[in-house]
Amino acid sequence: MLKDFSRIKEGLFSVNLPDHDYFFNLCEKTCDLLEKEITNYRPADNKGRAGGLLDFTKNPLPTVIVPDIHARPDFIFNILNYKLPKEYISYSDRSLFHALKKGLVRIICVGDALHTEKTILRWQAIQAEFDSRIYTGPAMSAEMLEGLNTITALMELKLLFPDLVHFIKGNHENILNKSGNGDYAFRKYADEGNMVKKFMFEIYGDDILYMISCLEKELPLISANKDFVVSHAEPENIYSREEFINVRENPNIIEDLIWTANGDVTHATVPAIMKELLNKENLQDSYYFAGHRPVNGDYLLRQNGLFVQIHNPSKQNIVFIDPNKNINLEESIIHLDKKRGKK
Question: pTM for the whole thing?
Answer without folding.
Answer: 0.96
